[in-house]
């Protein structure tokens, strides 16, 4: 069996192999895993692969690869074979990473402080003043705990002799820790017994240390310390991780527009007003964080944040300007700096690196270019690494000329043959393949020194010959199992003791952005439901009725289609338009509205449940599967049935799965406003059609056919239909139901946060109840038509007022303008 498993597995003494110490001979710490893989049937491994893929898909785990044809949300790739590291080896890695993090923190403090290293000639001035992200406004800022590097990551690789090297330092806003945590949750379920028996170290303690250290160092005042996670938004490549970490750490996920600076302090905009922010864990590049003092063209940051940092009123982690340490040219200076600052040798070497700004280094690099990789000295230079061995004559001459002209822009690194690790070959279900592997390890600052995560994010290359490991180049990931020689801590961040002061019920501290997206999630969900039902009504008439039969109902349907942006046409043209509305998100219709719904949901990643995501993903997969394919009318009806069922499921989640806090009320108000406007538009179109119109389509659209049949015998008639859809306060689709619900929500919000908006929906309710059934619930009633128009406009005004009051925190002038 091992021979079959390793039939295509390469073993080369020129590369270190993580699993094998000799052909067909696994290393001691790999033997239990190797034996389990050897004994596993093809069916079992396929089941594990599918289970991992299913959990990744259903949890919405994505990594946005820019320019990927799969779209912005590319599913996260996880291999089902972990990387395993024995305890003794890990202790050496952890000690070396803690030392390196402390060293880099001291260097960063000197660069933005006394700059003694520059004066002593231990650092070249070019490293600092030539770096685009040396942020001069941040120099001299005194930081809590005298710590600037709160979260650090190092990209490691093995030398052929098995020693670990540091390939690069990540000090800006290191990514990947959240993905490592998600990998662990998936893999521990695939191999529960083996995970327990091997005594794999848990990760929760590391994240608890990070969270608690930020709270410990945060400035005091204005209540209990509040930490937020600052994200650039859902279009960032690792946005899933931002939302995931915020939820796991129990901190609000915020964008720059959620925060404001007042009197040198940072505040979070919430439903109840402004709430003091004491610490910011940023995933936004430093120079984008403040448009006032850093990048004026940034719309992602918080104006005044640098001044708040200078005053010591907020802790920003990592400190602004910390990305200067990611320059490749620093690597060659670290051994000497470690002796100078820590009085000890560097425990883990960097890959051999030379800054070409030194004449001797340039001469040496050019003399053996074939064995080197040429990289930019500064990130702003923005060119890809160049492998010297790949250069032809002209290309080589051109590169040498550029290096001679501007030597300080280049660093030369030794070409590293990355170690190989096993991956499960999906093309050969009983075979292991080998891929180049890199390991990203994380350390966080604490009052007791740097703590290293017992694990990390293992990344594997795309193919057997790939020399660069990069998720942006389509690479995959692995869970990293660090084995323990003693008992494993069972601490979990998901369950921690709480005090009565921790209890929260009202939801008034929700950020304005979250409330806005909940509101629009509700509106888009209801809009999708209305459009899907309309398309089903229209297609049903085309499938089941002749052109003559459709005359009795089509006028109202066509008017509502036009209201939804779907123009009318002959039978053939209309069929094409309706099919396009279902599957083509570039055209008005269902697909376009579903895209908006998913976009709103993507901004609520920290709040949307796994069940919500499953329903959304199933809907979108169905629509995507149909895109560009011929779709018959019967298939289109079946697709609409599935979408409507999924939307009903989403409604059920909101009804039964969400607490009745203010966030739920805003989501429900979005639904009610959208449904009110949709019903008013549908009724208006029906009333503008001939009196003899078949009202069955209107009942079907309003999901009220069964109710009508249970109450009345015979064909639908104007009086009972209008009573059911306009005045019946028990019908969840009626105009009255929406008005009364909105009035109730507004009153509850007013009681909670003091909302004084002028649109309380009282007048439309009074006018509705004053309708005379005999005179007004009839075709041609001018009073009913006016009421429907008034209700539509009142819903529109209420939406605008909610936006100004709660979503953008408009000033008093704006509120007065709205009131008038």
Short description:
The chain has 30 helices and 24 strands. With 820 residues, the chain is of the alpha+beta class. Among the domains are: 63 residues, 2-Layer Sandwich (Dna Ligase, domain 1), CATH 3.30.1490.270; 149 residues, no CATH class; 161 residues, no CATH class.
How would you characterize the overall build of this protein?
The chain is an alpha+beta fold and 820 residues long. Among the domains are: 352-414, Dna Ligase, domain 1 (2-Layer Sandwich); 510-658, no CATH class; 660-820, no CATH class. The protein has 30 helices and 24 strands. Strands 6, 7, 19, 20, 21, 22 and 23 form a seven-stranded antiparallel beta sheet that branches. Strands 9-8-13-14 form a four-stranded parallel beta sheet. A four-stranded antiparallel beta sheet has the order 15-18-16-17, covered by helices on one side. α15 packs parallel to α22 (662-688) and α17 (554-563) crosses α22 (662-688). The longest helix is centred in the middle third of the chain and has 33 residues, at 512-544. It is globular and about 95 Å long. Mean pLDDT is 86; it is low at 66-72, 495-506 and 810-820.
Uncertain runs with pLDDT below 50, 5 residues or more?
66-72, 495-506, 810-820
- β-strand percent reads 5-15%
H/I helix tally? 30
Report the average pLDDT across residues.
86
Main sheet attributes: strand count, strand direction, barrel closure:
7 strands, antiparallel
Shape call: globular
Q: State the distance separating the first and last CA atoms.
A: 81 Å
The strand count comes to 24
- What is the radius of gyration? 31 Å
Q: Structural class given helices, strands, pairing? A: alpha+beta
Helix content: 40-55%
């Amino acid at each position: 069996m091992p021979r079959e498993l390793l039939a295509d597995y390469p073993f080369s003494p020129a590369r270190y192999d993580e699993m094998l110490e000799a052909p067909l001979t696994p290393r001691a710490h790999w033997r239990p895993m190797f034996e389990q893989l050897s004994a596993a049937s093809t069916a079992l491994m396929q089941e594990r692969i599918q289970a991992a893929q299913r959990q990744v898909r259903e949890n919405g785990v994505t990594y946005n690869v820019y320019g990927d044809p799969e779209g912005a949300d590319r599913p996260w790739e996880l291999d089902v074979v972990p990387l395993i590291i024995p305890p003794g080896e890990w202790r050496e890695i952890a000690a070396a990473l803690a030392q390196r993090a402390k060293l880099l923190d001291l260097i960063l403090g000197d660069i933005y402080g006394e700059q003694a290293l520059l004066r002593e000639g231990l650092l070249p001035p070019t490293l600092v003043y030539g770096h685009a992200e040396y942020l001069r406004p941040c120099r001299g800022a005194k930081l809590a705990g005298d710590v600037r590097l709160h979260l650090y990551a190092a990209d490691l690789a093995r030398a052929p002799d098995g020693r670990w090297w540091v390939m690069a330092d990540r000090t800006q806003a290191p990514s990947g820790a959240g993905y490592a945590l998600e990998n662990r949750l998936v893999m521990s379920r695939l191999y529960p017994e083996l995970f327990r028996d091997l005594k794999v170290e848990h990760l929760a303690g590391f994240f608890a240390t990070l969270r608690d250290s930020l709270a410990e160092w945060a400035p005091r005042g204005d209540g209990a310390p509040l930490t937020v996670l600052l994200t650039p938004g859902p279009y960032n490549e690792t946005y899933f991780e931002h939302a995931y970490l915020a939820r796991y750490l129990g901190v609000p996920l915020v964008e720059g527009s959620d925060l404001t600076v007042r009197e040198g302090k940072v505040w979070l905009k919430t439903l109840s007003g402004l709430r003091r922010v004491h610490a910011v864990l940023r995933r936004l590049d430093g120079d984008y964080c403040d448009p006032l003092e850093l990048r004026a063209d940034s719309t992602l940051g918080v104006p005044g944040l640098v001044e708040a940092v200078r005053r010591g009123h907020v802790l920003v982690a990592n400190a602004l300007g910390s990305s200067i340490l990611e320059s490749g040219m620093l690597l060659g200076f670290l051994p000497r700096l470690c002796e100078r600052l820590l009085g000890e040798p560097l425990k883990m070497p960097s890959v051999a690196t030379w800054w070409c700004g030194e004449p001797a280094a340039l001469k040496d690099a050019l003399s053996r270019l074939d064995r080197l990789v040429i990289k930019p000295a500064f990130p702003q230079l923005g060119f890809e690494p160049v492998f010297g061995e790949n250069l032809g004559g002209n290309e080589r001459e051109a590169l040498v000329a550029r290096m001679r002209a501007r030597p300080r822009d280049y660093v030369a690194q030794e070409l590293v043959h990355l170690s190989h690790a096993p991956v499960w070959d999906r093309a050969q279900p009983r075979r292991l393949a080998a891929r180049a592997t890199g390991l990203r390890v994380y350390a966080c600052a604490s009052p007791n020194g740097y703590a290293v995560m017992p694990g990390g994010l293992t990344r594997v290359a795309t193919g057997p010959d790939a020399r660069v490991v990069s998720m942006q180049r389509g690479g995959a990931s692995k869970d990293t199992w660090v084995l323990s020689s003693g008992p494993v801590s069972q601490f979990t961040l998901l369950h921690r003791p709480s005090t009565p002061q921790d209890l929260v019920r009202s939801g008034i501290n929700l950020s304005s952005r979250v409330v806005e997206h909940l509101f629009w999630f509700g509106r888009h969900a209801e809009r999708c439901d209305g459009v899907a039902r309309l398309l089903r009504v229209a297609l049903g008439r085309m499938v089941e009725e002749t052109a003559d039969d459709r005359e009795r109902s089509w006028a109202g349907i066509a008017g509502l289609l036009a209201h939804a942006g779907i123009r009318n046409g002959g039978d053939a043209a209309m069929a094409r338009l309706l099919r396009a509305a279902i599957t083509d998100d570039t055209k008005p219709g269902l697909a376009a509205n579903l895209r908006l719904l998913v976009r709103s949901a993507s901004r609520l990643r920290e709040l949307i449940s796994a069940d919500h995501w499953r329903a959304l993903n199933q809907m979108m997969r169905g629509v995507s599967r149909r895109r560009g394919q011929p779709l018959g009318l019967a298939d289109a009806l079946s697709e609409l049935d599935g979408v409507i069922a999924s939307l009903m499921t989403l409604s059920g989640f909101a009804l039964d799965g969400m607490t009745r806090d203010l966030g739920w009320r805003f989501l429900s108000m979005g639904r009610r406003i959208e449904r009110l406007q949709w019903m008013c538009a549908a009724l208006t179109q029906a009333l503008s059609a001939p009196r003899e119109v078949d009202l069955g389509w209107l009942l079907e659209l309003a999901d009220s056919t069964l109710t009508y049949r249970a109450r009345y015998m015979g064909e639908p008639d104007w009086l009972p239909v209008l009573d059911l859809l306009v005045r019946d306060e028990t019908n969840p689709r009626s105009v009255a139901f929406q008005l009364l619900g909105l009035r109730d929500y507004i009153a509850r919000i007013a009681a909670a946060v003091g909302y004084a908006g002028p649109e309380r929906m009282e007048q439309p309710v009074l006018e509705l109840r004053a309708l005379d059934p005999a005179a007004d619930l009839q075709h041609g009633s001018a009073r009913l038509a006016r009421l429907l128009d008034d209700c539509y406009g009142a819903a529109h005004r209420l939406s605008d007022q909610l936006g100004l009051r709660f979503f953008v925190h408009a000033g008093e002038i704006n509120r007065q303008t709205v009131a008038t």
